[in-house]
Design brief:
Length: 413
Amino acid sequence: MMDKKYQFGTDENKAFLNGICMDLLRFGQAFPSPGGGSWWLGDDGTPWKDRDRATWITSRMCHVYSIGTFLGFEGSEKLVDAALKGLNGELRDRENGGWYAALSAEGIPRPDKQCYAHAFVILAASSALLAGRPGAEELLEEAEKIYDLRFWDEELGLAADTWNTEFTVLDDYRGLNANMHTVEAFLAVADVTGDEKYRIRAGRIIEHVIGWAKNNNWRIPEHFTKSWIPDLECNKERPDDQFKPYGATPGHGIEWARLITQWALSTYDSDPAKNAPYIQAAEKLFRRAVQDGWNADGAPGIVYTTDWNGVPVVHDRMHWTLAEAINTSSVLYRVTGKQIYAGYYADFLRYLDDKVLDYENGSWYHQLDRDNRLLTTVWPGKSDLYHAVQSMLIPRMDPAVSIAAAVKEKMGC
């Protein structure tokens, strides 16, 4: 008999998710550095001060604790303000515009201006604005301005990836990871500000992704040339690259499925007939990813990457992949009513409970090997809370609404 704490929608399930969420928020409170940039958190939540203070991590923590304000988590406002201090201060390049990828432990800016990081600045600013924090509105205005100027290609309906620090040289690489988080950020801005041009832009990216996936047996190409031609052999010699791994990434197929569903519901809420093709595409992406990645090598867990035939390449289990699997299985169950998704949801939560929750030090293990033993080659420590916290909230919220807005609405804030 299924344990009710894993069963979607039960009181026991809601309590299980809420308890983990609160534990995560307690775990991450030591993230702010004196300048506001986020420390990389270690195994027990103690900051690793010898590592970079990254814009994307600072933005994620700003976003998470903005949600914390709606949940009534004590001290959230102070933590949001600390992250905003970093994003409006030490991480911002006032000479050239935009945000540094990171600062070294000594405070030296790392080269490059990343679309990925700038998308998270937009997400952070929109969530902080929703929370009413001082400085958030100005941050969002500047983030939108620099993103439109440097990354968004209105003609193509896609975003470029990486510039040099001075914004004078654009790298030839194009990628979908940054575009995926751009979709997330654009949907959040549309929900928070009412500016629907961002929802339209998100839809343009999504149309490209669905087309590429459909033509590749629902395995999404991740890497592209500057002409947006898929580069299916990219990083074959470095298959476990932190941000640009070789092959298909099942976790991204799963994450795209949820974002596509959110976009479709928020765009065509009153017309299910227009929803249907996108929901169907989301189901195909999810099922392909789960078929390729879940329990694919004789042990529980979702493998990090596969080749283009669905054969596992990197067998490691990343915590973010599980978080997105929890999210998307719950969303697809709510939207379609199909029991297969409720079954996956329960399986994923059971695996979280059995293997991924760190009951000794707190938070989740961020990387496990193929035998579900702790591994630290790609994700040492527990850098941030973003994926884990969201996965404890999305199953309980309106799937058509971005998570910060959905939590605020549900909590009556």
